[in-house]
Amino acid sequence: MKVIVRPQFYLDMEEEVYWLLENAGADVARGWHDAVWRTIELLKAHPEMGRVRKDLKQPGIRSWRVQHFTRWLIFYGVRAQDLMLYRVRSGMMNLLVLKMES
Q1: Per-residue pLDDT tens over the stretch 45-57
Q2: How far apart are CA 39 and CA 37, in angstroms?
Q3: pLDDT band for position 8 (cuts 50, 70, 90)
Q4: What is the pTM of this model?
Q5: How does strand 82-90 pair with strand 2-5?
Q6: Can you tell me the distance from the alpha carbon of 54 to that of 94, in angstroms, rounded to the nearest whole number?
Q7: Which helix (H) or strand (E) holds 101?
Q8: Average pLDDT of the chain, as a whole number
Q9: How many angstroms separate the first and last alpha carbons of the chain?
Q10: Of 13, 22, 70, 94, which alpha carbon lies 20 to 30 A from 28's?
C-alpha cells in the first residue's frame, strides 16, 4: 500500500512536535514523532481498522489513535491501494471544524 501524505499532515506534525518540545521535552516529542510513524505502518497493513468518521464533512475519512499517545488521532482515507494521510490532531479539539484537504 502506497502512503500519500497531504501537506496539512506535515504541518500538523510540525506544530505538535514543537508544542511537545516546549511543554514535555525532547524525549517525549521524539517518542511522539516515532509513534506516529509506527502507527502509520500499522495502518498500511490494516487500513480498514480505523473507524469511519460520519461526523466529519468529507466522506470516507477514518481515524485511529496514535500508539502510546492516544490523545492524538490520525485522520486518513483509503483509495484503491493508497493510504491518504490528512491530519494528525489532538482528539481534545473540536473535530467538527477540522478541514481535510483532498
Answers
A1: 999 999 999 988 8
A2: 5
A3: very high
A4: 0.90
A5: parallel
A6: 15
A7: none
A8: 91
A9: 18
A10: 94
Between CA 39 and CA 88, with CA 73 as vertex, the angle to 5 degrees is: 85
Report the largest interatomic distance among the alpha carbons of the chain, rounded to a whole angstrom: 39
Question: 59 Cβ partners below 8 Å, 6+ apart?
Answer: none
Helix residue ranges per DSSP H, 3-100: 7-23, 26-45
Q: How many CB atoms lie within 10 A of CB 4?
A: 13
Cell of 71: 490523545
70 three-state secondary structure: strand
Question: CA 13 to CA 19: how far, in whole Å?
Answer: 10
For the chain, list the domains and their CATH numbers: 2-94 (3.30.2310.20)
Kindly report the three-state secondary structure assignment for every residue of 21-46: HHHCCHHHHHHHHHHHHHHHHHHHHC
